[in-house]
Automatic annotation (TrEMBL):
NCBIfam families: CD1871A_fam. It comes from the Bacteria. This is Thioredoxin. It comes from Jutongia huaianensis.
Length: 47
């Protein structure tokens, strides 16, 4: 049971890192940052 849990954690960690890396390569970080800035400015009432 402990080995299965450890294996699952490693697989999920590797898949998460892979997905984040793929998104960074595609330029998705800039898109997310742009949307976050727009939301923050709308909350403050500037945008």
């Amino acid at each position: 049971m402990l080995k299965c849990k450890k294996t699952c954690q490693i697989v999920l960690l590797i898949s998460g890192i892979t997905m984040m890396s793929y998104g960074a390569v595609r330029g998705e970080a800039a898109v997310v940052l742009g949307k976050a800035i727009k939301i923050c400015l709308e909350c403050v009432g500037i945008g």
